[in-house]
């Protein structure tokens, strides 16, 4: 209990309660004194009226009247008066309402008590609301700071140099902010280091890959009757292209993770972006004799990075082509609602097992039905990262043996 007194707000509240109590005490004394004065005046007026009546009827008793009312009657006269009063029912058991003087006094007293009670309630409520408002204003301020922290804005709370639990909370909160800020900086440095390492490795790999590619192209240009050598040269070219694609995408993944990949958002047609994503894959689906069905809604304009969103959609379509059998079907659809845009890619391949489904967006993960030797397992992970950087989500619905449908949902910017 005593620990509460360490709080500045509690001490101020108690101080105001004591001040209110003293004010009410003074008001009560003044009010009851006023009521007594009113009763006194009414009693004196009644006594004066009685004096006037007696003096009119018995002038010889005039000098004895004033001492009789100011000093009080003798015991003999009091007893005589009681005998006379009893004859007419005027006793101490007479109801208060029958006495006009005291009835008026009672009315005044009740009004004063009611007024004081209302004033007391108003003052105590004002003090309590002031105290609670000040307390909850600080709590709301801390809640706003917590929301800012969740959003990544690590700003400390302004601390008051006072004692109490609120001050301890604010100091503890700022220690937490300081710790989180330091951890965030360490994490950022680690991510930056990770990105730089991958970037360095990627650049180091590009040079020998380019050389191998050039040498391989030169060897293919040279007339050679050895069919086996030509086959090896073609395979080398395919693997070099695969390595180039892998290095490029690893570099993109590193930049996505460190949030150093710049997205240039412009209001453009989503259907056009999907068309751009499809173009480099045409040869791939034609080679497998896959039929592509498109259902594009017209005039779907929203803010997005055309280049990178096309990259994400291209990876999803490429994944569908890889998992669709020869002469299979792939359906690509775009649609919109008042709040979002959807891009759907549906295939009639083998589908995804329940075991594989939770892991399909993980890097380098290959599912049960992934039979592609050249598959790297980073295409879907890369697509997910790009979509999420557009504040969108990517989901998959699948049934083993019947195919899968990937859905990209991009939420519209209400300010546009």
UniProtKB/TrEMBL annotation:
<feature type="domain" description="Histidine kinase">
    <location>
        <begin position="200"/>
        <end position="414"/>
    </location>
</feature>
<keyword id="KW-0472">Membrane</keyword>
<dbReference type="InterPro" id="IPR036097">
    <property type="entry name" value="HisK_dim/P_sf"/>
</dbReference>
<keyword id="KW-1133">Transmembrane helix</keyword>
<keyword id="KW-0808">Transferase</keyword>
<keyword id="KW-0812">Transmembrane</keyword>
<keyword id="KW-0418">Kinase</keyword>
<feature type="transmembrane region" description="Helical">
    <location>
        <begin position="16"/>
        <end position="36"/>
    </location>
</feature>
<dbReference type="InterPro" id="IPR003661">
    <property type="entry name" value="HisK_dim/P_dom"/>
</dbReference>
<dbReference type="InterPro" id="IPR036890">
    <property type="entry name" value="HATPase_C_sf"/>
</dbReference>
<feature type="transmembrane region" description="Helical">
    <location>
        <begin position="112"/>
        <end position="132"/>
    </location>
</feature>
<keyword id="KW-0902">Two-component regulatory system</keyword>
<keyword id="KW-0597">Phosphoprotein</keyword>
<dbReference type="GO" id="GO:0004721">
    <property type="term" value="F:phosphoprotein phosphatase activity"/>
</dbReference>
<dbReference type="GO" id="GO:0000155">
    <property type="term" value="F:phosphorelay sensor kinase activity"/>
</dbReference>
<dbReference type="Pfam" id="PF00512">
    <property type="entry name" value="HisKA"/>
</dbReference>
<dbReference type="GO" id="GO:0016036">
    <property type="term" value="P:cellular response to phosphate starvation"/>
</dbReference>
<dbReference type="InterPro" id="IPR003594">
    <property type="entry name" value="HATPase_dom"/>
</dbReference>
<protein>
    <recommendedName>
        <fullName>histidine kinase</fullName>
        <ecNumber>2.7.13.3</ecNumber>
    </recommendedName>
</protein>
<dbReference type="InterPro" id="IPR005467">
    <property type="entry name" value="His_kinase_dom"/>
</dbReference>
<dbReference type="Pfam" id="PF02518">
    <property type="entry name" value="HATPase_c"/>
</dbReference>
<dbReference type="InterPro" id="IPR050351">
    <property type="entry name" value="BphY/WalK/GraS-like"/>
</dbReference>
<dbReference type="InterPro" id="IPR004358">
    <property type="entry name" value="Sig_transdc_His_kin-like_C"/>
</dbReference>
<dbReference type="GO" id="GO:0005886">
    <property type="term" value="C:plasma membrane"/>
</dbReference>
């Amino acid at each position: 209990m005593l620990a509460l007194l360490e709080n500045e707000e509690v001490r101020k509240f108690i101080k105001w309660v004591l001040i209110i109590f003293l004010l009410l005490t003074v008001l009560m004394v003044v009010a009851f004194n006023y009521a007594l004065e009113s009763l006194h005046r009414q009693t004196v007026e009644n006594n004066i009226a009685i004096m006037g009546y007696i003096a009119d009827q018995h002038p010889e008793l005039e000098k004895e009247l004033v001492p009789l009312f100011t000093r009080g009657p003798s015991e003999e006269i009091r007893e005589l008066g009681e005998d006379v009063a009893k004859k007419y029912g005027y006793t101490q058991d007479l109801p208060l309402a029958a006495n006009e003087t005291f009835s008026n006094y009672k009315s005044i007293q009740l009004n004063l008590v009611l007024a004081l009670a209302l004033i007391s309630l108003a003052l105590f409520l004002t003090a309590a609301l002031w105290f609670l408002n000040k307390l909850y204003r600080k709590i709301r301020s801390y809640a706003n700071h917590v929301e800012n922290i969740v959003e990544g804005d690590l700003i400390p709370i302004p601390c008051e140099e006072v004692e109490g639990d609120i001050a301890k909370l604010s100091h503890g909160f700022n220690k937490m902010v300081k710790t989180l800020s330091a951890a965030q900086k360490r994490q950022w440095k680690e991510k930056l280091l990770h990105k730089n390492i991958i970037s360095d490795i990627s650049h180091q790999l590009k040079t020998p890959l380019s050389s191998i590619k050039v040498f391989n192209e030169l060897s293919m240009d040279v007339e050679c009757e050895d069919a086996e050598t030509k086959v090896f040269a073609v395979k080398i070219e395919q693997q070099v292209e695969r390595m180039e694609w892998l290095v490029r995408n690893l570099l993109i993944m590193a930049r996505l993770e460190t949030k150093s990949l710049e997205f240039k958002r412009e209001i453009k047609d989503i259907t056009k972006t999907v068309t751009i994503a499809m173009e480099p894959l045409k040869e791939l689906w034609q080679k497998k004799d896959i039929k592509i069905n498109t259902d594009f809604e017209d005039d779907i304009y929203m803010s997005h990075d055309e280049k990178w969103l096309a990259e994400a959609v291209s990876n999803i379509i490429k994944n569908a082509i890889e998992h669709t059998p020869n002469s299979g079907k792939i359906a690509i659809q775009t649609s919109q609602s008042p709040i979002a845009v959807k891009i759907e890619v549906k295939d009639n391949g083998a589908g995804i097992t329940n075991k594989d489904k939770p892991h399909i967006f993980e890097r380098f993960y290959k599912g049960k039905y992934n039979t592609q030797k050249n598959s790297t397992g980073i295409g879907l992970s890369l697509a997910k990262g790009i979509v999420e950087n557009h504040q969108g989500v990517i989901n998959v619905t699948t049934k083993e043996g019947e195919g899968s449908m990937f859905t990209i949902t991009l939420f519209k910017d209400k300010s546009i």
